[in-house]
Amino acid sequence: MVLYCALDEVFARPIIAAFERSTDNEIGVVGKFDVESTKTVGLVNQIIAEQQTPVCDVFWNNEIMHTVRLQKLGLLKPRNWKVASGWPSDMISSDGTWCGFAARARVLLVNAEKLTDKSQYPTSVRELADPKWRQNCAMARPLFGTTATHFAVLREKNGHDETIEFLSQIRDNAVVLSGNKQVAEAVASGQVAWGLTDTDDAIVEKDRLRKVEIVFPDQQADEPGTLRIPNTLAILKDAPHPVASETFADYIVSASIEDRLAMGDSSQLPISRDSEFTPRVMPKNPVRWMEVDFEAAAEDWDKWAKELLAIFSE
């Protein structure tokens, strides 16, 4: 079977190899990985271009919004996902065409040398627009990846106009960088006091023993909770190897694979209640997760993306 995979090859390859061993080499996997800068969009565009004569059997995305795009184009196969009981409703599609697993959280990374008192730490994403942090906080341009997904979700929850106004305020107040990794590095180096990034980029700086702390934002009762954005898996509607694809899909969304990703360098967050490993990026206290309708957040994606480009064009 053919897998198009946006997860970094260094993380995906060992899991693919373990799957092949588990089937006693009856199922081989040909993996296609795209370049770092365009991998998700490039793979999605290839799937769309190949829809009349599909090559890809399974799409493993390291985020969700572009998977929902494929769902809305009718290119994915509905199925019954063999997941643990209690799987969150926002982590599986309404029509069964995709399943979310092994998430990253959207967190605030704080430079503990610039902010020595924990009572000074920011606690909400809303503080990106607070003038007291002017040019001393950072965010990635919300045109790609998890930052784009984050603000599409906020648009769905808070409304179009309010979200556009919030983004305009952030543009004028925060240091806007090219990606989440660059935000984490800017915080760790002391360029800014704190920034909005992903748990996988934040934990890298912790593992490097940089003087940083991770804050899971918006935990108060009147706040929305922390957003988590999962990996997603989907089988193509006209997959050339449907039987092998079904076997692979069941293998990937298992608790054991989530645990493996949780143990890795990126410290992914398991969705399954059967998971046995707590990622080192997680805080001691329970986290309130944001309730999300990703399918609604993906509506009018192309129009929304153009509006964001107008605000954040270089």
TrEMBL record:
<keyword id="KW-0732">Signal</keyword>
<dbReference type="InterPro" id="IPR026045">
    <property type="entry name" value="Ferric-bd"/>
</dbReference>
<dbReference type="Pfam" id="PF13343">
    <property type="entry name" value="SBP_bac_6"/>
</dbReference>
<protein>
    <submittedName>
        <fullName>Extracellular solute-binding protein</fullName>
    </submittedName>
</protein>
